[in-house]
Amino acid sequence: MTAPVVARTAPPADLHAELMDCLQTNLAWLARAEHGVSPLVLGARLEFAPRTGSGRLPTVEADTDTHVERTAGALGLSLTERHVLPPRAAIPPTGPDTVYVIADAYHLPWVPYHGHTHMDHSFLLARDDSGRAVVCDGYHNDTPHGPARPGAWTLTEEELAAALPDGARVYRTTHTGVPRAATEVAPATAAAVEPYVRAYREHPDRAEALAQLTLETWLLARARRLHAAHRAAATGPGAAVEEHLTAWGKLTEQTFLAHRRVQRGRPEPTGPLERLAELLYADARVFAAPAPAGETPRGTGTAETGPPDTDTLRTAVAEEAAAVLRVPAAELLAGRALTEVPGFSSFRMIDIVERIEGRLAIEFDADDLVPENLHDLSGLCRITARAHRETP
């Protein structure tokens, strides 16, 4: 597979791909590039509507067919033709059209899920002036297997067929008109929130529950960022909304960290589920009526205060963090926040925690492992000093 970016299939500058999931983003690319529709219309309505998933836990993730239909409709697109291709079948020539394709990410060589994870993933397929297949994929995300970024790739027919060993769904679209969507927040009700949280709290397989909850919080946080961007396009950003989005981001990190700890046989941190309920209830309040400046949404949390421990401990913590982030330890010792280092993410945060534990032969208290303590050197040093004192 070659990888030259085709100029006329470069993603629109205002695609906002980082705010959408892997099924939304390519319909949004198509609607923006061909019909001038802003992708932010997808964030007009915010709701919490969990459903019974294919597993044993509820989920906010819609099934693929429903999600694609809703996304297309919100963008003013109609899915006019649908073809289900059998395994390893070649996608017929598209002519001058661009088609929308859904296939298994496990087999798609341009995404980081290739060879790792089975999941529905979308892309656009067009033809260049020579009739060659051009794959366009606007997905933007940081994954455990590396970053996914928007791009375009030219494939041979053999490469395209090899990427579809399990077949694919191919859609043609037409534009039905400029969508009109009212900005709306449907308040999360106790009837929806309490059973949802209880199902995750009481699930007997904690690793399974936290793995699914990690995906859930990621989906919920991303939907709220998209809704905030839609609102900000008309009204501008607000401090309370930014604080609320930060709280959602921290919850996603904390849940992922809890999952990794339980996978390794460590105690499960308390707090993520309570914070999840608080943030769900706060959505309507924060988005409908921005809080006065300085008010922090419930569940945001604050960092613990107090000086870090000895210089020796501080140096050791800085060296382990620097090794993961590939920066000089001196920069972190001088006060550079971990969050300011390119590439810092919840995945790197996990690596830093585990390296510190291994080097100093300690085990962090599960309840200390919240983002407020993990985004800068001083916070890491505080909890490291405490763990050092309490570890036998």
TrEMBL record:
Protein origin, superkingdom: Bacteria
According to UniProt, the name of this protein is Acyl carrier protein
